[in-house]
Amino acid sequence: AQSVAQPEDQVNVAEGNPLTVKCTYSVSGNPYLFWYVQYPNRGLQFLLKYITGDNLVKGSYGFEAEFNKSQTSFHLKKPSALVSDSALYFCAVRDEVIYNQGGKLIFGQGTELSVKP
Amino acid sequence: SAVISQKPSRDICQRGTSLTIQCQVDSQVTMMFWYRQQPGQSLTLIATANQGSEATYESGFVIDKFPISRPNLTFSTLTVSNMSPEDSSIYLCSVAKGGETQYFGPGTRLLVL
Description:
Chain A has 117 residues and is mostly beta strands. Chain A has strands at residues 3-5, 10-14, 19-21, 24-26, 33-38, 44-50, 56-58, 64-68, 73-78, 87-94, 105-107, 111-116. Chain A is globular and about 40 Å long. At the A-B interface, β6 of A face β5, β9 and β10 of B.
């Protein structure tokens, strides 16, 4: 079975400092990995994905993530955090493809990011 | 990406009643999905809504409790039937537009009293 783990329930960072939100995964084949962000009373917004290619993936709002196959990790990073980055972040891995499109997403438990001024 | 709307955005319902949630997409999509996010929890897939065929339900979710319709390629509904307080959750629809990425609607916040 495929699974995703986000080991930290909460991450606290000072504004301007770099941030890292951790994610590890377990899959039987090649992973399709995603990061989403959920602001209060909002739906999920897509940040970035890794499918294949360069291990460093750049996404929206200055976020990036590094795919590490040997460590089965896909940590989310940002060089300089903003107070407005405070939100709930979800890592997800895609399950087997259905009709060659889309497919079930398996989500981690989420990490609450708090950026203080 | 895709522009996805859901109605209602939130509702408070009495136990034993049913609520139908609508999901509308701004363009045709093959795959639509319904997820549940219980308070303080992650997202769990309820079912995949297929146009022209029955929805595919995940383990632990049944059609009698969560009937789904998918009449065309831009619209789907999820009904939460015979509700109990345990059904209080955020219900989100998502779509995949021929690629790997799923895009999510804003969610429907349901409180069952």
